[in-house]
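Morning run. Coffee first, then this:
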Amino acid sequence: MNNLVNMNVDIAGISFKNPVTVASGTFGSGMEYADYVDLNRLGAVTTKGVATVAWAGNKTPRIAETYGGMINAIGLQNPGIDTFLTRDIPFLKQYDTKIIVNVCGRSKEDYVEAVQKLSEAPVDMLEINISCPNVKEGGIAFGQNAAVAEDITAAVKKVSKHPIVMKLSPNVTDITEMAKAVEAGGADAISLINTITGMKIDINRRTFAVANRTGGLSGPAIKPVAVRMVYQVANAVNVPIIGMGGISNAADALEFIMAGATMVAVGTANFHDPLTTIKVIDGIEQFMREKNVKDIHELIGCVNG
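And here it is:
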């Protein structure tokens, strides 16, 4: 990279070579993509969600294509943290990229236990997925109640030896209320958005396209909503934001950055073009050269100025 263009960003004292990572659940832990993508090029790899024990996930079918995106109801299937620690982290440590581990749970105790088990792991940040259903509160997501979101943030922050990123659900009335809650709980950063709840009917089978009936809508269709929420949150809190939701190219990523995101994550686009992340990194750099932008920080939140 030409030294005249600085794409380094910093979140909670962690330095990233560029502002591009992947969205949890769309990249595994990089193993599936390593033959196609040079993981050394990425600012970070954000892993698929991991829980204290293995989760089988939902019944199939679990994915349905929609106009401008897809619906998934995977159910956070994962091998559990013990397998993750012995298999996935050693794999990622082979590469010159930061590691952000996504953590999921069904109770506050689940989250705390998972974070404690990761305390000595050689990773850089933890992303806490509070879109998980809270089994003790009738299944409502942790991230849909501000008081609960603040409480879970404070609980994991208390035991974590790594910076904590809280991943917010967009399925709320006021996203800034949730952002302020996790900031009050001690979050070092916020990532948003997670998927939007959607539904598809298979008219030929006269039933739901996914067995779970509803699922998470992702892809280009949700990008305008995601950009709006990133902008709102950037103007409501003082912690850095990792923006995501329908990013398919560098122009999409730059929208999030200009709205106030310090980093961006590529998700659904990885499925149809594994090289999307690299194209986004190269595209941002090319944009900066063409516009004579010397430092990425000139673009972060620039529409707010």
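Residues 276-290 form the longest helix (15 residues). Good start to the day.
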